[in-house]
Amino acid sequence: MKKLVLMLLCFSLLLSFAACTGKENATGSGQTPANDTAADTGDNPGTTATDTMPTVLNQTEYILYQNIFYNDMADDYVGKTVTKEGTLARLYDAFSGRTRYYVWGYMDATKCCDWQWEFVPKDPDSLPANGSLIKMTGTLTRDESALDKLWFTDTTVELETSFSPEPCDVDMTTMDSTLERVQLLNMQYKPDVFAGKTLRVYGRVLNPTTIQHPYYDNAWTQAFAAQAEIPANGTMVILTGTWQGDTVQADRVEPTPDY
Question: Of 163, 188, 217, which residue is a domain's last?
Fold first, then answer.
């Protein structure tokens, strides 16, 4: 089954790669956090808080990610210690029975192409909430336990902007496009693991019982059932509810602007 999810993950990543490809090779990193509403929390000098999830847009990081995972350039970077700035996500991998940790971002504001670096935190309990903006420093390491056979180890994490979403067991709104698809695969192939879990998922209303990925038409579709009034087809929404079988039993269906 682990091989199956890896194959499915590769397919999902290829969808991203087909959507847009890098035009140059680069190894630097320039970050553009999309956060205009930050306010000082007072807990940490330089640390801010926001009600809007920060998202990093970084074309250079996307090209580097493609070079490492698709252009056979991983050997040039294995063993190097670097810092990655991006959004924090946790993903429960039901095939391996472990929680995975990622720092992620998009190539640009179109959100057509994303990048996500898996890392091993020294103290998972000390990490901030999903959706927070962090700087992760670690050493790129080959390891069969990593979902893509490469992850960052010996890591430290610095919180830049805290984000406090509504608590739930699985919050796919704080994942990038690829991680969201991978989490859905886990849930669809291992439904018993997630049965009754609370969750939140973001997408476009395809019809009164289905939402689809907001940036890739038909990259994934998800069935839902809700007593609430369903907005018009094409409306961006956040579903909040529970996972039952292969369906989101939505307690709330909330129209929302671009997320």
Answer: 163
Residue at which a domain ends, from 163, 194, 226: 163
Identity of residue 146:
A
Q: Kindly state the average pLDDT of the residues 42-58.
A: 75
Residues 105, 17 share a domain: yes
SS3 19: helix
Whether 24 has a pLDDT exceeding 80, the answer reads no
Average pLDDT on 41-63 reads 78
CA dihedral of residues 244, 248, 253, 257 (deg, nearest 10) = 150
| Spatial contact of 138 and 152, defined as CB atoms under 8 Å apart | yes
Give the pair of three-digit tokens for residue 210: 């289905």
User: Could you tell me the pLDDT band of residue 16, with boundaries at 50, 70 and 90?
Assistant: very low
What's the rounded Cα separation, in Å, for the pair 241 and 225? Answer: 10
Q: What's the number of domains the chain is made of?
A: 2
Determine the Cα–Cα distance for residues 240 and 254; give it in Å rounded to an integer.
8
* Residue 216: per-residue pLDDT: 66
Please name which of 19, 234, 221 lies closest in space to residue 108, comparing C-alpha atoms.
19
SS (H, E, C) 186-208: HHHHCHHHHCCCEEEEEEEEEEC
pLDDT of residue 47: 67
Closest by CA position to 169, among listed 232, 56, 248: 248
